[in-house]
Structures are given as structure tokens and as C-alpha cells.
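=== RUN LOG ===
request id: a7f3
mode: sequence -> structure
chains: 1
length: 243
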Amino acid sequence: MKDMEFSEFVSRLHSVVGSGNSTHSFTKSILDAVTIDCEEVDDILDSYSEDTYKAYFNGNTKVTKIANKLSAYLEPFEFTSYLEKFSDFTTESLCEVFADYLPKSTPHTVVSDISDLLVSIIRTAASGKRKPAAKPPVKEKEPKTDEEIITDALSKGVQTFADALKANTHQVADQIRANNKKTGSPEDEPESVEAEVVDDEMPSGAAEEEDKRITVIKQQTNVIQNGDNNVNVTNNGSMNFNF
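=== RESULT ===
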């Protein structure tokens, strides 16, 4: 449970014992009742205006400054004496009003318990420190399903492979080129030349070297001597000789 603020304390107390008192006068009287009776305290209390005490009661202004000035003069027994003046019925009402903050209080102890509570509130305000709020409990994570476990494992494996490949891209490429050469990769084979032959003429895309090795003779008459006789051989088409 969070610390009780001064404004909440005086508001609760006012609902039980503050009948007929204005908020500013009641607030000032509470601070007077919880301190020792001396001239220094009177001077401190009188230095604040009615509007300031109203703001203390409503919670619009913190009591830090006045609490700091009064902390040296606090006396819980003085406030106990203040509350003991009221009836037993009032004491029982105080038990009910402060039950959430003082659950163990009884009609016999509530007066002193409330006095100690007020002193604690003023001292806390004077120091400017508040108890840290309790941290919410940490919610336990639900166990992963079988599918989630497998997916996480595969994702990590793929990412590891991708990172390794990225870091060694050049080395992997060189290794692939070397393997392709050993196995006779198609990229090492000479490119073939496609040529079209028209009417038994020389192929249209043949290399220059082929031109030197192929002789084309068109419509040439050849004379072949066979003994004393000459035989004429006439070529009406084309004859190709490959050497």
C-alpha cells in the first residue's frame, strides 16, 4: 500500500473530529496539536495564510516546506492527548476510518497509532522522500510449443549459414570455378559455330581457317590422260575437295 498523504490524513480525521471547523483552521490546529507548545512553533504556523492551509487540506500544495520547519518540534504524545479528549464512540469511528492503514488498531490503541502515523507522514514529507512503488510481479513466460521450438532452431541454422556464406562469398565462388574445371564444365568448352549450307556452297558462318581447307570448283572441265587417250570430265555442278 502506498504512503498516506497529509491531505488524505486530515480529510479522514476531519470527517470524524472536525465538525464545525473550516478546512484551513482544522489543518492548522492539527499541526499545532502534533508539535510541542513553544513560541517557535507558533511563529512558524502564523507565517502561513489561510489559503495555504486550505491548499494543504485539499492536496493542491504539498506540506514539504512547513513539515521541514516543524519536524524538529514533533511530539506524538501531544497529539495523543489531543485525540483522547474525544468520546469512546469517536475512538471507535477512528478505527473504522483508518482501518485500511491501521488494520491492527483497536479502540485502545488507535489513538496512539494515529499519532504515530501523523508523525511519520510529516517526517516523510520533510525529507522529500517517498517509498518506491511496489513492482508488479514478473509474469512467467509460457512454454513454447513444439512447432515454435522447431521453427526457432531452423531459423538460427539458416541465419548461421547465410552469415557464413556472406563472409566467404569470394572463396566459395573460386571453389565452384575450380570444381567446374575439374569436371569439364560447359563454360570451358569452345563455342560451336552454326552455319547454313545453301546449294552445296560453303557454309555461311564457317571460320576463316575452314576457308583455307575447302576448295570449291564450279563448272570446270578437267582433262585426265589415260594412256594415249584423253578423257574429258565436265563438272556441271560443284565439287568440294577437303584437304
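=== NOTES ===
The chain has a mean pLDDT of 78.
Residues 208-242 form one domain.
=== END ===
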